[in-house]
Amino acid sequence: MPSAGRLPALSLALALTAALATPLAHAAGAPSARSGLPSFIGELTQRRYDGRSDDLLTAGLGFAGLRGPMPRAADPDRPTAAELRRQAIWASAGMSAGSGGGLGRLYGPDVDRGRPVPGDGKVAGVEYRAVAGGGARGVSFVVQVPDGFDRARPCVVAAPATGLGGVYSMVGTSGAWGLHHRCAVAYTDKGMGPAFDDLHSGTVMGYDGTTGPRAELRGRTVFDAGLSDAERARFDAEHPYRVAYKMAHSG
Questions:
Q1: pTM of the full structure
Q2: Could you tell me which Pfam families the record lists for this protein (predicted)?
Q3: Of 126, 250, 121, 117, whose CA–CA distance to 195 is shortest?
Q4: Fewest CB within a 10 Å sphere: which of 5, 103, 140, 172?
């Protein structure tokens, strides 16, 4: 199996989706060999969303919530992974900007083929989160498989982030189209999403967006500067209070 460092991020995302979605595609038919998880995948989590309190497309907000103000965290200084996910999906929809230019009328997560999507937009299903690689070469992935996944005609929509966007930045566009059409959707930040490593305090960002001490999050981060403890201490002594950002180290 090729290593994560030698495969483009989009190829990794599609390989991961094939491993996760293939069993669903065969569930209603004859038994088949279950796809194995690619060896380059490190941390993997799975969460089911019921389509009521939380979901794949609107993070439980519904179309009405996506049009409203950004959802706030109960404790702004310590947002939870669920709250960060909800904020990221809200931002990806871009619906709070109003209907100027046709948003919400001609296009948007609440429009399909030029027609309004009926209901509140919530999509039940399973979401997988994973990270491949490590250090300055970590790549973040999300795979969403809706409950309405078309097993007779299985399809996958690739939704890599544009520019330096985070892994959820395409949920409201490419992701919405895929979910409306009963496809699985594969997202990736291409190894360029927002993350940091505070070289003075040792605080880093986990793959779920939460932050904490580097020692506690080891193996669950999407970026760290790749310095040993000795190198980190030496650098901090010479250049205190520096922060390394993933986008500057992603090349």
A1: 0.83
A2: 3HBOH (PF10605)
A3: 250
A4: 5
CA distance 54 to 42: 26
Measured CA to CA, the distance from residue 72 to residue 176 in angstroms comes to 23
Kindly report each contact of residues 7-12 with a partner whose C-beta sits within 8 Å and lies 24 or more positions away, as own/partner: 7/40, 9/139, 9/160, 9/188, 9/189, 9/190, 9/191, 10/158, 10/160, 10/188, 10/190, 12/38, 12/40, 12/132, 12/139, 12/141, 12/188
pLDDT tens string 126-136: 999 988 887 77
How confident is the model over 88-146, as pLDDT tens digits? Answer: 999 998 876 666 666 777 777 888 877 788 888 999 999 999 888 877 788 889 999 99
DSSP label of 99 = S
Question: Quick one: CA dihedral 132, 246, 92, 178, positive or negative?
Answer: negative
Contacts of 89 (CB under 8 A, 6+ apart): 57, 58, 59, 61, 168, 171, 172
Q: What length does the chain have?
A: 251
